[in-house]
Write a structure and sequence with these properties.
544 residues, alpha/beta, Spore Coat Polysaccharide Biosynthesis Protein SpsA, Chain A, 2 domains, 11-stranded mixed β-sheet, 3-stranded antiparallel β-sheet, 37% helix, globular
Length: 544
């Protein structure tokens, strides 16, 4: 049995590491030596790590994270209008759009960054369940809605063709005969459209008079409308290795048409999550999970791994938007306007921060100018540090350099109407400062009634509508992984071949991976947020 003082030492170390976090550790009565000991790596393990580009220290840290868990964030309050969220007036919207237009004309490099590796299988959860159900006629509401609107899906013609080839009858004939499952099977299976396995980006989402577009194509159109500069549009998709060729073929086929239509030249690139960002799986006792052949099991680290892909870009400004949040052309105007607004806001605030940093570099500034910078950090960047009034000017300059010279993002947030999504909060950072963060429910202590009230009564949520500044005032790229808060990962529970395991998720891309960025929240209309989470979402008016 471990000595009591051993446990005290261990938990004090954790408290010192994360002084502004709320611990969520479980007391397990095992020896403290087991809690902190390293897992011995075999020669085969080390070879596996080298192949992935993962250090032994990384694995040991991940296994330690399984043992100790992650601390909950300490919250200062939910962000709201006037409390971290800005609602620009019509005149301000116009001025910010003009700022963005002027910035683009200067020839800065702008990229549209689209995480697109996610499979569409979750879109069709209800239809997979229908295929395996012990009934053959649509019974659940989702099933009935699908068949009622089947003709309105953009992929209807392709589905009809697949049914003709595989069944000798089209969709209508199959439905008349009551063979509903044949229709679904031809939509989901590899012999048909294979929508059950393809990524969302390659599905046919929207029908036009002369064409049908996938989300990839809609993002290409968006890039031309608000993210192009001097006749060039740069678009980057993160994809899975198994589908990279399909994405490439689609882009190669459609690009000439869009270049001609919008009078621009596209630069389209692809990347995959780096093997070095995979995380090791663990057994329920926190030892490494091994496959039947004795190898360590690794899993993708989640979208937080994409911070490295983002950091590889050579751009000045990067728009980040999910692959499924696209609309047909008739709905694009409002999206374009607000993308220009949030981009203009980024440029305006970033330029002011750059001016202050250049002033600090001169060494010639007054106390009044330092106070002006403090107000800027507080009121424009919504970052505060208790005890600033007690600091000397030299200490304040060090603080200002740290808070001004870091990556910056402006996030569009929409009013909370019950849609899933991270919430905007004011949270404490490891250095004791308070800043704006996008939090998921897993980061909040559900046993804290005050925190749960903040989360459930939050007025806004994040639809993943970001524009990012990833270069500093000297034009150098920020090393983005340096601004990740490693204490904001989380653990989930999965299984492999019927055996339970623990999986480690890296800090989310717009959550902990951007924790130490300067963040600004701007309220944008709900009409700019139209995700497709289920296939029936494509029947909503916004997608017709």
């Amino acid at each position: 049995m471990a000595k009591i003082q051993d446990f005290h030492i261990f938990f004090e170390l954790r408290a010192n590491k994360y002084p502004n976090r709320v611990s969520r550790f479980r007391f397990i009565f095992v020896s403290s030596r087991w809690l902190i000991r390293k897992i011995m790596m075999t020669t085969a393990d080390k070879a596996q790590l080298a192949q992935k580009g993962i250090s032994e220290e990384q694995i040991q840290q991940q296994l330690k994270d399984f043992q100790t868990g992650f601390p909950f964030l300490k919250l200062a309050g939910a962000a709201a209008i006037g409390k971290g969220i800005v609602a620009p007036t019509e005149q301000e919207q116009k001025e910010l759009a003009e700022v963005w237009d002027a910035y683009k004309k200067e020839g800065h490099r702008v990229t549209k960054f689209v995480p697109a590796s996610g499979a569409a299988s979750r879109m069709f959860k209800d239809m997979f369940e229908f295929l395996s159900a012990d009934y053959d006629v649509p019974t659940k509401d989702a099933e009935k809605r699908f068949f009622e609107g089947v003709h309105d899906f953009a992929f209807y013609a392709a589905l009809d063709d697949a049914c003709m080839v595989n069944e000798g009858r089209g969709v209508d004939a199959l439905l008349e005969d009551g063979d509903y499952k044949a229709v679904v099977r031809n939509m989901l299976s590899e012999e048909g459209l294979n929508y059950g396995q393809l990524p969302k980006g390659l599905l046919q989402f929207h029908a036009y008079d002369e064409e049908v577009r996938t989300p990839v194509e809609e993002h290409l159109v968006e890039a031309a409308l608000y993210a192009s500069s001097k006749g060039e549009a740069d678009v980057h998709f993160t994809v899975s290795s198994e589908h990279r060729e399909l994405f490439g073929e689609l882009v190669e086929r459609v690009l000439p048409e869009y270049e001609k239509k919008y009078g621009i030249h596209y630069h389209v690139s692809f990347s995959e999550q780096k093997p070095s960002t995979d995380t090791v799986a663990a057994n329920m006792d926190n030892t490494p999970f091994r496959t039947e052949d004795g190898k360590l099991l690794f899993r993708p680290g989640g979208h937080g791994a994409l911070i490295r892909n983002l950091g590889d870009l050579e751009s000045d400004i990067v728009f980040v938007k999910n692959i499924d949040n696209v609309v047909p052309d008739k709905m694009k105007d409002i999206t374009v306007v607000w993308k220009q607004v949030i981009a203009g806001a980024l440029v305006k605030v970033q330029q002011q921060a750059f001016d202050y940093l250049r002033l600090l570099d001169t060494g010639h500034y007054s106390h009044a100018q330092i106070e002006e910078m403090i107000r800027f950090v507080r009121h424009e960047l919504h970052t505060d540090m208790p005890g600033l009034k007690d600091m000397e000017d030299a200490e304040l300059v060090v603080y200002l350099r740290k808070k001004l010279n870091r990556p910056m993002r402006v996030c569009g947030v929409v009013k909370n109407v019950g849609e899933p999504g991270g919430g905007p909060f004011l949270a404490y950072n490891p250095d004791g400062s308070i800043s704006l963060q996008i939090l998921e429910s897993s980061q909040i202590d559900k046993n804290n009634p005050e925190y749960m009230r903040m989360f459930t009564e939050g007025t806004h949520f994040n639809p993943v509508d970001l524009v990012c500044g990833i270069r500093d005032y000297k034009g150098e790229k920020f090393d983005l992984p340096r601004y990740v808060d490693p204490a904001t990962g989380f653990i989930s529970y999965k299984s492999k071949n019927g055996k339970e395991l623990k999986a480690l998720e890296l800090p989310g891309l717009w959550n902990g991976a951007m924790s130490d960025w300067n963040t600004i929240f701007i309220e944008v209309p709900l009409a700019t947020f139209n995700p497709v989470k289920t296939v029936n979402d494509l029947l909503r008016p916004e997608h017709q």
